[in-house]
Amino acid sequence: MTGEAVKDEAVKDGALLTVEDLRVSFPGKGLRAPRTEVLKGVSLRVGPGETLGMVGGSGSGKTTIGRAILGLVPVASGAITFAGERIERASARQRRRLSKDVQVVFQDPYTSLNPSLAIGDTLSEPLLAQGVGRREARRRVGDLLERVHLPSDAAARLPREFSGGQRQRVAIARALAIGPKLIVCDEPVSALDLTTQRTVLDLLLEIQERTGVSYLFVSHDLAVIRFVSHRVAVLHKGEIVETGDAARVTGDPRHPYTRSLLLSAPVANVAEQRARREAFERERAAS
Ligand SMILES: Nc1ncnc2c1ncn2[C@@H]1O[C@H](COP(=O)(O)OP(=O)(O)OP(=O)(O)O)[C@@H](O)[C@H]1O
Asked: Which part of the chain is the ABC transporter domain (predicted)?
């Protein structure tokens, strides 16, 4: 299929991001070891203004999907289409252009910000790189801080003066700086305590409502995924085993792996969890 043909299809079905039959492998350990296939034909789509939650256990390949979309790992085969443009083997120039539309928020707010750069400089950097003038950049930094509910004097301070939750707000503000269409959120709240998790998730939802940005939201935590996602894809050993509406996948999972994920989730509602476990065990005994 030519690049043009894929472009037309992607635009026609209204997807912002389409991943088709994506395969990624890494060299095995040892000289003659075969490569390890980490993604084994993953397909997904994210619509404009939509959050696709990507959930799966450790090592299932969640982060690798995000990294492939961002061009940070080589793709063995398959197609990644963003806004009608094939990007799985984007050139450095294409990547620079794409960085305006596709941003990322990483898990660890303690390592994702430059410790020697004042918050204002961290936020103005992407703006200046896009050709925004200094004065306008300063004004927009003020807006960004306001949008993520940080005080305007934060601009002059260093990351070490902020808590984990506040730093993650800065990371979100940086991702938002040049008005992206898609943010890959890679476990953005996993390093935060429960109360802070909630405020950062609320912020992400508020931003989506206001700007219409799409999220590919990676997490191992089903409760977090249920809270933020419109649709959910469940990844297991490099393959998507179940996908669908968030309430359906997390409330009435069809695949045994999704059910086991649900059962191993921390217990928010003991009665609900017990009923689910009993139903699961009855079904297993009957099969
Ligand atoms: N650059 C790399 N080189 C070699 N192996 C890698 C590389 N990146 C990831 N892997 C391997 O690929 C597999 C999937 O990793 P990935 O980080 O995508 O999983 P994950 O689902 O995000 O897991 P976690 O929740 O633990 O971060 C793991 O076995 C990991 O060791």
From this structure: 17-262
